[in-house]
UniProtKB/TrEMBL annotation:
Belongs to the DinB family. InterPro entries: DinB (IPR007837), DinB/YfiT-like (IPR034660). Keywords: Metal-binding. A divalent metal cation binds at H37, H119, H123. GO terms for molecular function: metal ion binding. Pfam families: DinB. This is Damage-inducible protein DinB. Gene3D superfamilies: dinb family like domain (1.20.120.450).
Amino acid sequence: MKTIKKMFEHLNWANQLILETLQNAETDEKHLSLFSHILYSEQVWLTRLKGMDTSQMPIWSDGDITVCANLIKENEENFKTLLEELVKTGLDNLITYTNSSGKEFKTSIRDILTHVALHGQYHRGQINSRLRVDGFEPVNIDYITFVR
């Protein structure tokens, strides 16, 4: 659980750095689309972890920097609450959910949380690549930088 919590501290730190960079740079819709995808996906997984239906939730949506800022705060609070609750119930419990294509899966909470942390890092890397192409300095969001 300690490692999972640290991964989510890193996730929140990295999201905040990307947000600040996008707020200060003249970026296009592609950056915001990827960033909002990260944040909406976090919401979808939170909802699935609570055993609720996600079929009407967006995964890809038009990006808006203000919406992204609000999603970061909301997701951070909700994941902190969830992680505290999981200390009592455990990470190896399986949950059943339906993906965006309508297919049902059973996956451990541990694997879902690991996926959420890695999924965001993958897309933040895409954002950094696009920033570099557009002439902006990429954001150092490496985990080792976070723990230093």
